[in-house]
Write a structure and sequence with these properties.
Helices cover 43% and strands 12% of the residues. The chain is built from 39 helices and 25 strands. It has a six-stranded antiparallel beta sheet with strand order 12-14-13-16-17-15, sandwiched between helices. It has a five-stranded antiparallel beta sheet with strand order 5-6-10-8-9. Strands 1-2-4-3 form a four-stranded mixed beta sheet. α28 packs across α39. The model has no long low-confidence stretch (mean pLDDT 94).
Length: 974
């Protein structure tokens, strides 16, 4: 074992714990049992089989209220792997469940045997016919697909609120729709063709003209029986009418029986049945969508009403006016959404009875927009609107920021309300639809039913389509709470079906949650046809048993997960998974959700159990060491959970007192450390990369890798020993060159001024000269210590930089311009908790400006662009995301280049100071997609604004990235 290796026990939960009834049992501590593990490893290869108990636990939870621990998780790369897995399951009598994003709300992505991860290795989009269609792989998120389609003025029809995380495979498999899809823009209506793998292993491409001929040859019995079912349904006029009527409103409960009516051949029938089949009929490996126009002229309003029923009663007006979206939010939802950044704080004071409608009109052009706005104004007349708090305007707006804020609040319904639930409670998300004309009545009945059962639920939904969602919170560890939930569900399902003839699942699909109530809604004849359809397509019951179809009347109460309390920063997490696509380690080790899920399992375990020990052993590397600490998870999380901050705190907990003292000593003597580092980098040029790689590699074996960075060939030479000479007299700002730019020079191939020289020069050209203090050496933004959890060193440097900045800027009279985005973030925000009370007061007076903002807002208007490069690709850093200055990066780049591209797959590079040198596999994984996109063509310039991120992208792409301010200097140089 290397020296100074942290002890896993340092992260053992300290709270007194009793064993939870739903804990992973000791017998599972060894992970996947033999021979299952060995057989699948031999079949697929060891890298595709996840078998440790920590792997099984992190896949056991998803966004639903259920939790089932699989026997094994497999990660197939292609159709051949999928076919091999299905063949193995058939031969061994095993069961298979597919899981992509894990954002499903009803347990349909959870399995108790072989769980197949189809998110990894299954991403990609190909635009067809100038955007009219798109061929998309199932692991691609809706947001990622729409980002590509937006360039063509197109978008997908389905628009679920979880678009940031949910994947195309899940959207189609659940027939998820969203805010605007209704019954006409959902997957069933907009999927042109599918490629899928049947349980038998047969691959079907419904776009192939010979598809039916090929299927008849491969699966004659299947074809025959599908056509027999079609004939039986069509011969029953009453049943046919019933099926058509059920899909006049949104409905995803059970299988799409109308596929037998809409399809004339076995392949056409299967194409319809696969939509909404929840992985029970096969694996969807590719989808071709017919896309829709992206109407960019948008007018929206958030209209407030005195009650939920009053808001619901107004919905038909806006439907008739042509609104594309009419979204309903009740008082509980509105008040809970104040936890979402950008939502007015005074919403917390809204009366409980208040409700709101988010109404949106979209048009392709200005005349269309004006016509819609006239129709909207007419619809509003005579409505009983209220303005209980000052921020309420009840007016339509075209302003993008305001509209974005409205939608952010609406889309955060599940997560914001769930995040505000009582600690330790499980969240249930229900989803039903009624004829839109009966919406007001349904709202009134729902509120009455909730009160009868002691629930104070939050209600929201797609009111234009009669589709409501509501949330219930209860403690799954208490039998009385589970009984109360069960009684409510019985009454709710009867109410929806018997009074409103509604859909028990409008868009979230049946899953495990509504399976026991399927027959209540559809009746025995249609339900039995669904069972027979399952038998025809999957006769051995290999795929997803107990999902969609389950004869157990209490199936929805099985596997309800407890939510043990964890660290305060993470406790509100409802495991929605919105954070996962943004996480640099998602394809390497764990995601933020999985880090929290693993921590919760530790809390379910009795102290010292074999399972807890195994989880702790894996947690150090899988969760703590390979967290980039970039906190982009906080940006993606609707309630702002910062799992990165939790991992930094865990790093701190693992430090010995001696390590903390050494880190503090480094901070106190940073001037000498800085000078030594620059000399070492300079000496490295003479020593050579190979020798340095060998030396650091040996050191990392002797001392734990998290303490010794590995030398990388991409590390640049040393910066100049002296910074440019400047004058304080007449300076418009104080310029603070970050320590990384005082140690490392620019790219090896760069011929021109260094970054400090460029900032000084371009500021002078704009008539806004900057001054570099002579005593910047030995100061730092403190991020070095903050990111590693060295609190003592962080305190030393945080207070030093604020005190120095106060003096340099004459008490905040001049702005402090910082030339690395991560350092700007550090000084502006991250140092604050570590300051003394006195220095916190000083910090409030400082104006800390990122160099991108300085260049875009202050310099560009005063500069003359003399030359432009042809094309530039940008790497927006995670710090820019936090600071909100990505637009400024683009603005400066657009001044310097004729064409500017931000890759659709741009994300955190995970270099994170030196973390890319401590765990280079983390940066390799985090940048793989972005690097592939960047290297798909040539660019004239590769630009960013943070030296270590530029080094990380150099390594990922083989290109040379440099600061956009250096490019601006070149573009304006006389």
């Amino acid at each position: 074992m290397p020296l100074l290796e942290p002890k896993p026990e340092a992260l053992r939960p300290g709270a007194a714990r009793s064993a939870s009834h739903d804990r992973v049992l000791d017998s599972r501590a060894a992970g996947t049992p033999e021979p299952l593990r060995g057989e699948l490893t031999a079949l697929l290869g060891p890298e595709k089989v996840l078998w440790k108990v920590s792997d099984l636990v992190k896949y056991a939870s998803d966004a639903s209220p259920y939790r089932f621990v699989p026997q094994v998780v497999v990660v197939p790369e292609d159709i051949d792997d999928l076919s091999a897995i299905l063949s193995y399951a058939h031969g061994k009598g095993r069961e298979v469940v597919f899981r992509a994003a894990g954002t499903s709300l009803n347990g349909q992505a959870q399995g108790e045997d072989i769980l197949v991860d189809v998110r990894h290795h299954w991403t990609g989009i190909e635009v067809l016919d100038d955007g009219a269609q798109a061929r998309i792989r199932p692991g691609t998120t809706v947001m990622r697909a729409n980002a590509t389609l937006a360039r063509y003025g197109r978008l997908l029809g389905p628009d679920p609120a979880s678009a940031i995380a949910c994947t195309i495979g899940g959207v189609v498999a659940n027939n998820a729709s969203g805010m605007t899809a209704g019954t006409t823009r959902n997957s069933y209506r907009t999927v042109s063709s599918l490629t899928f793998v049947l349980p038998s292993g047969t691959v079907v491409d419904t776009a192939d003209p010979a598809a039916d001929e090929l299927l008849a040859h491969a699966e004659p019995r299947l074809c025959e029986e599908l056509l027999a079912l079609k004939a039986e349904i069509e011969a029953d006029a009453e049943l046919t009418a019933r099926i058509r009527a059920k899909y006049e409103i949104k409905n995803t409960n059970g299988y799409r029986l109308d596929a037998f009516l809409d399809g004339s051949t076995p392949v056409q029938i299967l194409r319809g049945l696969m939509v909404g089949s929840e992985g029970t009929f096969g694996f969807i490996s590719e989808v071709v969508f017919d896309t829709l126009p992206l109407d960019r002229k948008v007018s929206s309003a958030l209209l407030f009403f005195p009650s939920l029923t009053a808001a619901a009663a107004a919905v038909p007006r806006f439907n008739e006016a042509g609104a594309i979206a009419v979204e309903l939010m009740d008082g509980n939802t509105l008040r809970a959404s104040v936890s979402v950044q950008g939502v007015p704080a005074d919403w917390a004071e809204l009366p409980k009875e208040t409700a709101a409608l988010l109404v949106e009109f979209r048009a392709p052009d200005e005349p269309g927009q004006e016509a819609y706005e006239r129709a909207a104004a007419a619809a509003v007349k005579g409505l009983d609107l209220v303005a209980p708090v000052a921020s309420v305007t009840n007016e339509f707006t075209r302003e993008t920021k305001a509209i974005s804020g409205y939608w952010k609040a609406r889309k955060a319904f599940v997560t914001a309300v769930g995040g505000s639930r009582p600690s330790g409670t499980t969240l249930i998300t229900e989803d039903f639809a009624v004829p839109p004309s009966q919406l007001a009545d349904a709202c009134e009945s729902l509120l009455r039913l909730q009160a009868e059962h002691g629930f104070d639920a939050a209600v929201a939904g797609h009111a234009a389509h009669g589709n409501l969602h509501f949330l219930l919170a209860f403690d799954a560890a208490k039998p009385s709470d589970v009984d109360r939930y069960a009684a409510f569900m019985d009454d709710f399902c009867r109410l929806t079906v018997e009074r409103f003839d509604g859909s028990l699942k409008a868009e979230h699909a049946t899953g495990r949650n509504i399976a026991p109530f399927l027959e209540l809604e559809w009746g025995p004849k249609a339900t039995e046809l669904m069972w027979r359809t399952k038998q025809v397509i999957d006769p051995d019951g290999v795929l997803a048993p107990r999902i969609v179809l389950d004869r157990d009347p209490k199936a929805h109460l099985r596997g309800l997960k407890t939510i043990p309390e964890v660290e305060l920063i993470a406790d509100p997490c409802i495991e929605c998974g919105f954070c996962e696509p943004t996480c640099p380690s998602e394809d390497l080790t764990t995601t933020p959700r999985q880090r929290i899920v693993l921590r919760r399992e530790m809390m379910r375990q009795p102290n010292g159990s074999p399972v807890e020990t195994e989880l702790l052993d894996a947690y150090g590397y899988d969760a703590v060491d390979t967290c980039a600490g970039d906190s982009t998870c906080k940006l993606a999380c609707p309630v702002g959970i910062d799992t990165g901050a939790m991992m930094k705190d865990f790093r701190h907990q693992r430090h010995s007192p001696r390590e903390e003292r050494i880190a503090a000593l480094t901070a106190k003597n940073f001037k000498a450390v800085e000078a030594s580092a620059r000399l070492a980098v300079a000496a490295a040029d003479r020593i050579g990369d190979r020798l340095l790689e060998t030396v650091t590699g040996l050191a990392r074996k002797a001392v734990r890798p998290d303490l010794v960075p590995e030398w990388l060939p991409e590390i640049p030479g040393a910066a100049a020993r002296k910074l440019p000479r400047t004058s304080r007299v007449g300076a418009s700002a104080v310029y603070y060159p970050a320590c990384v730019n005082r140690i490392f020079g620019g790219p090896e191939g760069h011929r021109g001024p260094s970054l400090p020289q460029a900032v000084v020069a371009v500021s002078a050209r704009a008539g806004k000269p900057v001054w570099i203090p002579e005593d910047v050496a030995g100061t730092c933004c403190a991020t070095i210590w903050h990111s590693k959890g060295y609190d003592e060193g962080n305190v030393v440097m945080a207070n030093r930089i604020v005190e120095a900045a106060w003096g340099w800027t004459a008490g905040g009279r001049l702005p402090l311009v910082v030339d690395a985005s991560s350092c700007t973030l550090g000084i502006a925000h991250e140092v604050v908790p570590y300051l003394t009370d006195e220095n916190r007061e000083l910090h409030r007076e400082l104006s800390i400006v990122d160099s991108l903002v300085w260049a875009a807002d202050e310099l560009l208007p005063e500069l003359t662009i003399l030359r432009k490069t042809g094309s530039a690709v940008l790497h927006p850093t995670c710090s820019m995301q936090h600071l909100g200055d990505v637009d400024q990066l683009r603005a400066v780049a657009e001044a310097c280049a004729e064409e500017v591209v931000v890759p659709d797959d741009a994300g955190c590079c995970a270099f994170a100071g030196d973390r890319g040198m401590l765990h280079k596999e983390l940066t390799a994984s985090a940048t793989a997609k972005e690097a592939a996109e960047v290297n798909s063509r040539e660019y004239d310039a590769y630009l960013s604004a943070n030296r270590m991120c530029e080094i990380g992208m150099d390594r990922a792409t083989g290109r040379e990235y440099h600061s956009v301010l250096m490019e601006l200097e070149r573009a304006t140089r006389p």
